[in-house]
Amino acid sequence: MSAWEWIRLLAGGALLLGGLLIFLIEMYGVFRFKYVLNRMHAAALGDTLGITCSMAGLMLLSGFRFSTLKMAMVIVFLWLTSPVSSHLLARLEAGTNEELGEHCEVYEKLETLEAELQDRREEQQMQEAQEQKEEAL
Question: What's the pTM value of the predicted model, to 2 decimals?
């Protein structure tokens, strides 16, 4: 085996082991956390990073072939879909859970921030309307 093949083998193996370690940490987080949003956060981050490391290791080990392109497309697909689906599930949980205040304080602050943002938007609209009136005169 040449030096390049040894480097590919070691780098691919390291990425596979890194992906396995990330999956193990993810599993620990999913079973350790008590609240569903914390569990979802651990699972979403672990999936994205763990699959990326594992697939990158497999890509290095298999060499540059058509299967490597397929694995790269799987990585891109998972990077696009996993965060979106996790976000949608988290919004569903935050919107439908009536006891969310027991688990986090951010939800109450979020309502206050949304009210302030709405007030700022109304002020900007009023300022724009006044500027248009001044320009019309």
Answer: 0.66
